[in-house]
Design brief:
- By secondary structure, the chain is α+β, with helices and mostly antiparallel strands.
- Helices cover 34% and strands 31% of the residues.
- The chain is built from 7 helices and 11 strands.
- Strands 1-2-3-4-11-5-10-9-8-7-6 form an 11-stranded mixed sheet, with helices on both faces.
- Helix 4 packs antiparallel against helix 5.
- The chain is globular.
- The two termini are 37 Å apart.
Length: 255
């Protein structure tokens, strides 16, 4: 598959993901995404499709800071637009003390290498919509003390394009995976386990169910994205039929 198609699918899925819970407004230098409902949800406050062709980068930064401050929010992420050279954006952001993050885009290149086992004696896979209490408990263990992150993740269950599957052992959710459908694209999301779960067993079971759904719906592109520091997750997927299709760049405000 053409890597540009995979990167385009990753960008499109990411935009739709934030449109689910954010308000957005086009500006002269990018598109501002804000989430007044969850002001403490850091990643929901961002500037996407940054384009500096017609504006000085430092001026764009100052205007963006004012835009978010006027809404009692703080922008946490800048993402360059497709076609925007990285260097001018990076020069501004590094000067302001922000950090570059490389996101690895993986596409499902060989579904035959992926797990096929759909059952385990000690674990069941169930939709989170049918296990809301167990899912809430899982989120609270995953986002300790981060109420906004828990609430936003829980609210996403109401979106028909997003299906969360839980690996459940003895009535307790120990891992999850999300199938996010955006037109002809599908994105693997929220691939996470609790600290006491057997990572490979629960992840392999969930991935098999994710791919069963992909086989049924036949999206043109199946993509997963992880920061390059997430070496375990990237290795797990590349050993199971996914392939590195390229990198996306974003810039994050330091904590």
């Amino acid at each position: 598959m053409n890597p540009n198609d995979v990167l385009a699918a990753a960008r499109r899925c990411e935009t739709v993901w934030w449109e689910q819970i954010c308000e957005w407004e086009p500006l002269d230098y990018g598109v501002a995404f804000t989430c007044p409902r969850y002001p403490e949800l850091t990643d929901a406050q961002q500037l996407r499709d940054v384009w500096l062709a017609d504006i000085d980068g430092s001026d764009a930064f100052d205007r963006a800071e004012t835009y978010f401050a006027d809404r009692n929010l703080q922008c946490a992420i800048w993402t360059p637009a497709p076609g925007q050279p990285e260097a001018p954006v990076e020069a501004v952001m590094i000067d302001k003390g922000w950090q570059r993050e490389n996101i690895i885009a993986l596409n499902l290149a060989d579904i035959d290498k992926s797990p096929a086992e759909l059952e385990r004696e000690d674990m069941r896979v169930l939709p989170a919509r049918a296990m809301r209490r167990a899912y809430r408990t899982f989120l609270e263990s995953l986002h300790d003390g981060e109420t906004a992150a828990c609430d936003a993740a829980f609210d996403r269950l109401d979106d028909a394009s997003y299906e969360v599957l839980l690996a459940v052992r003895d009535g307790v959710a120990v891992a999850r995976i999300g199938y996010h459908e955006v037109g002809e694209f599908a994105r693997l999301r929220d691939f996470s386990v609790t600290s006491d779960a057997d990572d490979n067993d629960s992840r392999s079971l969930l991935l098999a169910h994710f791919l069963l759904r992909a086989r049924r719906l036949s999206p043109r592109v199946v993509v997963a994205c992880f920061p390059e520091a997430a070496t375990d997750e990237i290795a797990f997927l590349t050993q199971r039929g996914f392939a590195d299709a390229g990198r996306l760049v974003r810039f994050r405000r330091p904590a």
